[in-house]
Amino acid sequence: MTLNISPGDLRRMKQARRAAALTGAGVSAESGVPTFRGKDGLWRSFRAEDLATPEAFARDPKLVWEWYDWRRSLIAPLAPNPGHYALAQMEKIFPRFTLITQNVDGLHRAAGSTAPVEMHGNIWLTRCVREGSICENRQAPLPEIPPRCPGCGALLRPHIVWFGESLDPDVLEQAFTAAREAELFFVIGTAAAVQPAASLVGIAKEHGAMVVEVNVEETPVTHLADVSLRGPSGKILPELVNLLQSA
Ligand code: BV8
């Protein structure tokens, strides 16, 4: 695949000292993780209101956990793809690089990204609804549903940001700071439909960043992109990293 990037755009990309990327479900699609929207997306078969809201959990924690247990079991054997590895390499290309992800699958970390800003949490972490304590738990399937806190016996919930819930203020601050400071901002494999994550693209642009989109389709933020690279991120990103590393 030959990327359609003009020499001037490539030069500008190479000159960036502060870069950031916002990733979404499309980056993990080539690893086998289902996306949310689109043809085979999770929201085609499941209603977000029944499964990914605090109200749904209060109503039926067992149902919500069964869905997360199914997703955990599906993701557990999957591995990062070349797109994840290319993003991990970007830490070595740019003097400052912040990876911001909406994905909860943990595959960026598995590929070697050192400090991904996980805006929507992580499916391998649980949180006690009483104590707020966060623990890693990689058992899939879980032996008990819904799982309970070993310390106090209260319900555990997935450490994931559901619709209608506020994002962690520290995580939000890291993401917004990176978007404001970026000279180069990549938006990769996201439908840019969920707020506040999608607004990061406009914020980066308003603060002067060059915006580069990688997606198989057009999205609501395509019009903000200085460069649009149309195709699978697992193919485009390794190619892009090669170009950025070339003399
Ligand atoms: C909040 C967790 C304050 C579940 C998820 C302003 C306007 C309208 C609505 C709102 C607004 N502000 C807030 C809202 C409400 C809501 C929201 O945004 N609703 C939208 C849907 C209208 N936001 C919230 O509730 C947020 N909280 O704002 O707090 C507040 C509080 C109270 C009241 C008001 C405000 C919390 C958001 C919660 C996000 N949690 N789910 C779970 O994962 O278990 S969102 C869910 O969507 C996932 O987490 C996912 O990460 C996220 C984003 O989806 P994408 O990653 O974009 O994936 P998608 O499938 O959609 O797209 C895939 C893309 O990849 C496509 O573009 C496709 O073309 C592309 N692709 C596919 N294959 C490839 C590819 N690209 C490249 N290569 C490929 N191979």
Task: Please characterize this protein's 3D structure.
This protein is an alpha/beta fold. It is built from eleven helices and nine strands. It has helices spanning 7-15, 25-29, 42-45, 48-51, 54-59, 61-75, 82-93, 107-110, 169-181, 199-206, 233-245; strands at 18-23, 96-101, 117-118, 121-128, 134-136, 156-160, 184-188, 210-215, 227-230. The strands form two sheets. Strands 3-2-1-7-8-9 form a six-stranded parallel β-sheet, with helices on both faces. A three-stranded antiparallel β-sheet has the order 5-4-6, covered by helices on one side. The protein is elongated, with a radius of gyration of 18 Å. The protein binds ligand BV8. Ligand BV8 is lined by residues 24-26, 29-30, 35-38, 41, 52, 102-104, 120, 160-166, 189-191, 193-196, 214-217, 219, 232-233. Ligand BV8 binds at residues 24-26, 29-30, 35-38, 41, 52, 102-104, 120, 160-166, 189-191, 193-196, 214-217, 219, 232-233.
Describe this structure in a few short sentences.
It is built from 11 helices and 9 strands. It is an alpha/beta fold and 247 residues long. Strand 7, helix 10 and strand 8 form a beta-alpha-beta unit.
Give the secondary structure arrangement, pairings included.
Layout: H1 7-15, E1 18-23, H2 25-29, H3 42-45, H4 48-51, H5 54-59, H6 61-75, H7 82-93, E2 96-101, H8 107-110, E3 117-118, E4 121-128, E5 134-136, E6 156-160, H9 169-181, E7 184-188, H10 199-206, E8 210-215, E9 227-230, H11 233-245
Parallel strand pairs: 1-2, 1-7, 2-3, 7-8, 8-9
Antiparallel strand pairs: 4-5, 4-6
Helix pairs in contact: 7-11, 9-10
The site of ligand BV8 has 36 residues, from helix 2 and strand 8.
